[in-house]
Structures are given as C-alpha cells and as structure tokens.
Specification:
The protein is mostly helical. The chain contains 13 helices and no strands.
C-alpha cells in the first residue's frame, strides 16, 4: 500500500488552508481598521465629499477590472435600481456622513460608533424581516447605545444633532439599512458581485465631486494622496477579497467574531499615524458598546420568522 503524502492525507487540505484563512482575517481587520485613521489623515487637505469621491473613483477602477475579468451576470432593471439604492445609502451617504463626522471625532471613537451597526441591523431585522429579540437582545441594545453615548460625550458637541458623533452614528444607520436592502441581491448575484456593483454605483453617484477632488489633490501632499489611494484599495478591494476567504473557511458566525477587533486596531493605528491617544472615556465607552454588540449577535436574537432570510453579521 503506498504511503500517504501530505497532499492526500485526510484533512491535509484543511490544514494547509487554515494559515491562509487566518492571514485573510488579519488582512481584513487591518485593512478595514486602517480606513478610520486614513480618513482623518486625508481630511487635513480634502473636504469630506471630494474625499469620498476620489476614494471611490480609485475603487471603481479596480472594480471595473474585476468585472471585466470575472464577467458576472448583469443585474436586471429591478436589481439595478436596488444596487443604485445600495450605492446611495451604503457608499455615498455612509461616507459623506462618516467623513464629515470625522472632522471632529477621533478615528478610534468613530470606529467604535460605526461598529455598532449590527445592533441597528438587528433592530431593522425585527421590523422588516420578522426576527425576534429576546430579553438579552434588548439588554445588549441598551448597553451598546449607552456605550455610544459615553463615547459621544467625550467628543465635541456630544450626540446633539449635526455634531460629529451624531453624523458618525448616522453613518452606522446607513450601513445597517444597506445590509437589509442588499440582502436579497446576495442570494442572486453572490457577495463579491454585489460588492462590485454597489461600489460602482456609489462611485457614479459621487462623481460630480471629482473635479473638486482633483483640484484639491493637485495641491495636496504625498501623504494625503497615499491616504486616498489606500482608502480606495485596502478597505474596498483587498478587504472584501480577504473577507470572502475568511467566510469560506470559518463561516459567517465565527468570522464575524474577528471583526470585534476592528475598533481597537483602528484606535491603536491612530496613535502613530495621527498622534491621537484615546482617553479613558473613549476606551470605556468603546468596550461597553462592543460588549452590547456581542450580546445581541450571540445571545440576543431568538429566531427568525420562518421563510425570512438570516442577516449577515457584518458587511
């Protein structure tokens, strides 16, 4: 009987894939966390909306290359309109609110607020998809919003309407709405194609501000230009590609747990990149907010009404 080699032993492929999956998780967390300090860097010389326009113009170039390579099925008119709505809510509105909010909100604080989006998604699922909340789900929601309030109270203007923290919270709401609106499209087109079409729609909607972005970039420093390019490449293209690898290996529930690392990593990145050392209030509020998200994601939802699709934990 021939000896089994590493390539034909049962489980060998899984063993070899495991390091790749863990590397994919690390790249995903680092790339998505980097967006928050990179936005703050770019905002030193760019206005919020032109920054969003330039960022997604870069991302759109990569998306067009991927679409030409993979040639996914074109969406129907109805799906095309839904993708346009996804681009409007999940790309254009989300980034305009986040960028404007980060003019006054520290990168670490913004990352903690945005990463409470699964709480809002769960509440929308309660209303739209018929999911039910248990007592722990409601408790987790209250805990998470208490954490947001604690973070916001340490930022200029607190959570008052129009203040930076309230705009970042609005970005989290946009992300939650986007998850619900996009859900039917994933089943028909797949996650990567949905991301590609959504990014492309968002880039088109933001394109009216490209001339202003080009004008501001022409006089910007190399650091700002690098930040814009990194924002277009890392969180969008590379982050979603590696996230797909992680999902394939760990499954949605296990993989989502790694995303709780995004806010603390973003906070750590902001120290050398921006000189932003988080205060105790931000760290405590962030820990409370993420604890609430963990409770809702792991223990809070009782069940979905029969026939309704399960929501992804994160986008």
């Amino acid at each position: 009987m021939p000896e089994r080699t590493a390539s034909n032993r049962p489980g060998a492929a899984v063993t070899f894939r495991a390091p790749l999956a863990h590397a994919a998780v690390a790249v995903t967390v680092l790339s998505w966390a980097s967006a928050f300090p990179a936005i703050r860097l770019a905002l030193r010389e760019l206005a919020p909306i032109p920054l969003a326009s330039a960022r997604f113009a870069v991302a759109a170039l990569l998306v067009l290359g991927w679409l030409a390579w993979r040639r996914p099925a074109l969406p129907s008119l109805a799906d095309g309109l839904r993708f346009t709505a996804c681009g409007l809510i999940g790309i254009a509105a989300y980034n305009i609110l986040l960028n404007t909010g980060e003019q006054s909100v520290a990168a670490g604080a913004a990352s903690f607020i945005v990463n409470t989006a699964p709480i809002i998604t769960a509440l929308l699922a309660l209303l739209v998809l018929g999911e039910r909340f248990g007592a722990r789900g409601w408790a987790g929601t209250l805990v998470s919003f208490a954490g947001i309030s604690l973070i916001a109270s340490g930022q200029p203007g607190g959570l008052s309407f129009g203040a930076g923290a309230s705009l970042v919270a609005g970005a989290a709401l946009c992300m939650a709405v986007y998850v619900v609106v996009q859900k039917p499209l994933i089943a028909r087109h797949g996650a990567l194609a949905c991301t590609a079409y959504t990014l492309l729609a968002g880039a088109v909607l933001l394109s009216p501000w490209l001339p202003q972005a080009a004008d501001e970039l022409s006089g910007a420093s190399g650091i700002t230009v690098a930040a814009v390019v990194a924002l277009g490449v890392l969180p969008a293209a590379i982050g979603y590609a590696t996230w797909t690898i992680a999902l394939g290996h760990f499954g949605a529930a296990r993989a989502a747990n790694f995303l709780y690392l995004v806010p603390p990593v973003a906070t750590l990145m902001a120290i050398p990149l921006l000189g932003e050392v988080p205060g105790l209030q931000t760290l405590l509020g962030g820990a409370v907010a993420i604890a609430g998200v963990v409770v809702v994601n792991t223990r809070g939802r009782v069940r979905a009404v029969a026939g309704s699709p399960a929501l992804p934990e994160r986008t």
